[in-house]
Amino acid sequence: MYFGVDYYPEHWPLDWLEKDLDNFVQLGANTLRIGEFAWHLMEPTPGKYDFSYFDRVIEEAAKRDFKIIFGTPTATFPAWLAYQSPEILSVDAFGHQRVFGGRRQYCYNSKIYELYASRFVQALVMHYADCKTIIAWQIDNEFGHEGSDDCYCPQCNLSWHGYLKKKYENIDSLNEDYGTVFWGQTYNGFEEIPMPTATITTHNPSLKLDWARFRSVSLNQFAIGQVDLVRDYKGEHQKVIHNFYGGFFERKYDQNVLAEMLDVVAYDNYPVWGGLRKPISPAHIAMTLDYNHGLKQQNFWIVEQLMGAQGHDVIGYRPRPGQGRLWSWQAMTRGCESLLYFRERTMTRGQEQYCQGLIDADNRNGEKYYEAAQFFKEAKEVAMNWKPLKPAKVAILYGYDNIRSWHEQPQSEAMDFTNEFMRFYEGFHQLNVPVDVLDLEKDFSEYQVVVLPVMQIMTPDLENRLKTFVKKGGVLLATFRCGIKDEHNNLKLGEVVPGGLTDLFGCEVFGYESLYEGLALEVKGSLGDGFVEVWRDLLQATTAEILLTYQDESYKNYAAATSHSYGEGTAIYIGAALSNSLVDALCHKICEASHIQMIHSPQGLEVVQREMNNGRLQRIVLNHTESPLEFEGQIISPYDVVFEECMPD
Ligand SMILES: [Zn+2]
Q1: For residue 350, how far is its CA from the centre of ligand 1 (angstroms)?
Q2: Cα of 69 from ligand 1 centre, angstroms
């Protein structure tokens, strides 16, 4: 297990190095991440490599038995490169070229950038291939973050046409699949096809989905090229990792593709950032951790864990005393096995002056330092005794194409993909039921319950897998707009919704209505009374049992939710965004029927169980609130984490 800090020795006088390293030893750290923004330091002028600075750092670190994760520094390239080859700079959707000065502003399709990056990374990795202190290479930093996944430069335009030509082979196929007969947009050649930059009204939905796929391919090709390069030159003992970041459902790239090529998934865990008034919910943080676990379905590392307040120009919420430790433990319970804090000390110069480190700018060990020290001490004692995470009984599925399709056409002003994804995740999380978060390409056949939120793009393959899953005894819970579209992002002609699945769900969608922001409609039924929002499918049950019915005069004969026995299993269709009480009732009902253990706890108190090597269970109780909460007769202090051992049931 690696525990430590992100260390930027180049930000401080070199004669602080030994004192700093000694201070990290006192902290209980055994690992440092270095180098990920220091390209210029190692190649100050083109082709002139100088690794002497980090040679010295690594030598001193090795004397203290530190292990090192070295970041290949391609997220921030030297100014000389931008000056000499400005065509490497990416262009935004309004045609503005991004200038040197921020970060990540290179184009993934730039052959010149790839050449310079690869040349440097090869020299770096060769230099340290035999270095036993370096145990992993982190490729770049947070690929695609901060809008860097999009670019509309001339190189991208060329690559875009090449991508479409390869995919469709002839222009007639593309015209047919896009339906370009609409608005007379038929193309005579691939070179006529625009990139979806600013226009009047909007671009063709099939084109927009292909653009998102193209962006994903562009980024992943660059990233995987870098992974392959590092693999060619690194030492055998060195792993290859990359640090993913939050907000992944907003990004234009499929992280599963890159994750597959890595040895270990790493994550940068920031439950609060920038101007946020409060952290994202405990369930939302948990989901991001489960998502990262699900990328490779194996344990992951956190290489940036916040302890203090963070932001570039604006800062919001300051994590409360104990909350940094709480979030660290939450991550550990969900499959994190190594954790580094960002960063060692607040930088006093440059763009991240307001990203607080473990040590503040006053350069004294304060409460954040001692909180991290406490976590490291506990983690080495406690988490060492855990067995690896087992798959959960419930899985919630997402698909990259489907997410992109929703982003381009939200249909309701109240629609937010992440909110809809969280709706049932939160329901199970409230019952402390573990949920795996998985890309739909992964095998879900062994789960007891599969949740399929707003899966509007439905392929025949997915239809078949879902039917087989339920037929063999699984419980499937799908929510509104299920199966309305094909893989080209087009509505399915002549098919009743849920497309291809009416026999599975035993219901048909008669019609639909988008519900505007703030509108809530009453529903009633066996799940109780409550409200729906965002959207409503008007359902007619053919062979299904009705769970909820709309109450307004015009549509009071239509169902809002149904449940259907199919083979050995059950298929539940939810035609609207249910209010919390209805979600809770349904999750409870499903767990009860499927004999899945629920642990009832007050709102804000999370309970996770991990199997221990000694055959017992460890219960980790986390209080995410600023009030004391009671759990099974014990008072848990605000933001505290409590460990209990018990026998398995
Ligand atoms: Zn570009």
Answers
A1: 27
A2: 30
C-alpha 161/C-alpha 397 separation (Å) is 32
CA 323 to ligand 1 center in whole angstroms: 41
Q: Give mean pLDDT, residues 623-640.
A: 97
Cα-to-centroid distance, 140 and ligand 1 (Å):
18
Could you report the per-residue pLDDT of 248-278, keeping only the tens digit for each? 898 889 999 999 999 999 999 999 999 899 9
**Bond from prior residue into 33 cis (ω within 30 degrees of 0):** no
Q: How far is the CA of 102 from the centre of ligand 1 (A)?
A: 17
First-to-last CA distance in the chain?
29
Strands 617-623 and 605-611: antiparallel
pLDDT > 80? residue 649: no
The torsion region of residue 528 among left (phi > 0), alpha (psi -120 to 50) and beta comes to left
pLDDT for the residue numbered 341: 98
Question: If you measure from the C-alpha of residue 101 to the centroid of ligand 1, how many angstroms do you get, rounded to a whole number?
Answer: 18
- If you count them, how many residues does the chain have? 649
Residues within 5 A (CB) of ion ligand 1: 107, 109, 151, 153, 155-156
Residue 218 · residue 108 · CB < 8 Å: yes
Q: Mean pLDDT across the stretch 20-41?
A: 98
User: Does residue 287 surpass a pLDDT of 90?
Assistant: yes
- Give the distance (Å) from ligand 1 centre to CA of residue 575: 40
How remote is the CA of residue 107 from the centroid of ligand 1, in Å? 4
Give the pairing of strands 3-6 and 336-342: parallel
Instruction: Report the b/e string of 104-137 with b at 16+ CB within 10 A.
Output: bbbbbbbebbbebbbebbeebbeebbebebbbbb
CA distance 491 to 509: 14
Ligand 1 centre distance from Cα of residue 45 (Å)? 25
Give the containing element (helix H, strand E) for 643.
Answer: strand 641-646
Enumerate residues 6+ apart whose C-beta is below 8 A from 464: none
Q: 265: burial class by Cβ within 10 Å (0-12, 13-18, 19+)? A: buried
H, E, C per residue of 256-271: HHHHHHCCEEEEEECC
Mean of per-residue pLDDT scores for the chain: 97
CA of 317 to the centre of ligand 1 (A): 36
pLDDT computed for residue 647 by the predictor: 85
Let me know: does 304 contact 340? Beta carbons within 8 Å.
Answer: yes
Q: Which residues pair with 241 in a beta bridge?
A: 138, 264
Q: Could you tell me the pLDDT band of residue 334, with boundaries at 50, 70 and 90?
A: very high
Question: Ligand 1 center to residue 152 CA distance, Å?
Answer: 5
Ligand 1 centre to CA of 547 (Å) is 50
Q: Is the pLDDT of residue 45 over 90?
A: yes
Residue-wise pLDDT for 182-193, tens only, equals 999 999 999 999
Ligand 1 mean position, distance from CA 170 (Å): 24
Give distance in angstroms: CA of 113 to centre of ligand 1. Answer: 11
- State residue 189's pLDDT score: 98
Interval between CA 210 and ligand 1 midpoint (Å): 16
Q: How far is the CA of 91 from the centre of ligand 1 (A)?
A: 6
Confidence category of residue 602, pLDDT binned at 50, 70, 90: very high
Distance 613 CA to ligand 1 centre (A): 51
What pLDDT digit, counting tens, does each position of 159-202 carry?
A: 999 999 999 999 999 999 999 999 999 999 999 999 999 999 99
